Amino acid sequence: MPQETTAAPPVVKIDGITKGFPNRKKGFQRIVAETNVDIQEGEFITIIGPSGCGKSTILKMLAGLESVDEGAILLEGEPITAPSRQLGIVFQQHVLLPWMSARQNVVFALETEPGSTSTKEELRERADKYLDLVNLSHAADQRPSQLSGGMQQRVGIARAFALEPKVMLLDEPLGALDALTRHELQLQLLRLCEQQKRTFIMVTHDVDEALLLSDRILVMGSGPNAEIIHDITVPFGRPRDAETVEQDAKYHELRSFLLGSLTSH
Ligand SMILES: Nc1ncnc2c1ncn2[C@@H]1O[C@H](COP(=O)(O)OP(=O)(O)OP(=O)(O)O)[C@@H](O)[C@H]1O
Q1: Which positions fall inside the ABC transporter domain (predicted)?
Q2: Is residue 243 part of a domain?
Q3: Is the overall model pTM greater than 0.90, yes or no?
Q4: Residue 128, CA distances (Å) to 110, 125, 140, 161 in order
Q5: Could you tell me if residue 214 is inside a domain?
Q6: What is the pLDDT of residues 214-226, one digit of tens each?
Q7: Is the CB of 119 under 6 A from ligand 1?
Q8: Domain limits at 46?
């Protein structure tokens, strides 16, 4: 008898979605063409594409912050129609409460989580665990004004991760940082993601960041009515380190391919 192999059901299924917006000249303009993607639990997916092609729009639909026009996005088989605690978001810029310390900012997010039954002490421990994971234990008692931009971003990342969502959505999470801080945080994010074994969907403009962090890279063509033109499996094993990845011939091949596909559209 032939053995039947059944793939695990995807944690996220983007099932025939399209999306457009009202447009002053045309009445309505479709921004995202019909899109189908299956994402397995534990995968790190990156979406790249030319400016304005609809990357953030797709992420907002995944977050339940924007509705789909056609099709559906399913999280473990259930349509995403509103934000939920299963879907964490890290934006380019974090709004931290300026009168609270780094730790209090994380604890506050945990306290306001619906249905939380944890004690103050447990929440504080969880906050400290995630601040430690982003190397910020030493700054836990400092307020945002006492922290650098990179440190503030790390508090934002710790806060989102501490909520322990099933899927973490990252919209240009390191986009506002200088090159050196950005590279440091890429390495930290790589370690954090490999430890966490969660599902990640990230939007970035940075091809190197995409190659370092992802298992799959979805390349969008230019809009309007943009489609995913490539779905690339990144061939580097895990755990990864930047030096080994950057020395791999396949890295340079993929990098040129990705840069070429971004500039040719
Ligand atoms: N709420 C909205 N109303 C009208 N048009 C919108 C809305 N949100 C996005 N758009 C339009 O949809 C298109 C895609 O926007 P989106 O922000 O998703 O692109 P992007 O690929 O993330 O761009 P970038 O790389 O520059 O951040 C743009 O033309 C934008 O003006």
Answers
A1: 12-247
A2: yes
A3: yes
A4: 12, 5, 8, 12
A5: yes
A6: 999 999 999 899 9
A7: no
A8: 9-86+202-265
Q: Which residues is 203 bridged to in the sheet?
A: 47, 171
Determine the residue of 55, 61, 68, 93 to mutate for testing ligand 1's pocket, defined as the one with the most ligand atoms within 8 A of the Cβ atom.
55
Ligand 1 centre distance from Cα of residue 62 (Å) = 15
Q: Is 68 within the bounds of a domain?
A: yes
CATH of the domain at 68: 3.40.50.300
Give me ligand 1 centre to Cα 52, in Å. 5
ipTM summary value = 0.98
Which strand (E) or helix (H) includes residue 20?
A: strand 12-23
Q: For 226-252, what is each residue's pLDDT tens digit?
A: 999 999 999 999 999 899 999 999 999
90 C-beta closer than 6 A to ligand 1? no
Ligand 1 in reach of 117 Cβ (< 6 A): no
Q: How far apart, in whole angstroms, are the C-alpha atoms of residue 81 and residue 111?
A: 24
d(CA 35, CA 95): 32
Cβ–ligand 1 distance for 54 under 6 Å, the answer yes
pLDDT at residue 87 greater than cutoff 90: yes
27 domain residue, yes or no: yes
Peptide bond into 79 cis (omega under 30): no
| 52 secondary structure, DSSP code | T
Residue among 98, 113, 195 at smallest CA distance from 144 = 98
Residue nearest to atom 25 of ligand 1 (CA): 51
CB contact at 8 A, 242 and 212: yes
Query: How does DSSP classify residue 76?
Result: T
Say how many domains are in the chain.
Answer: 1
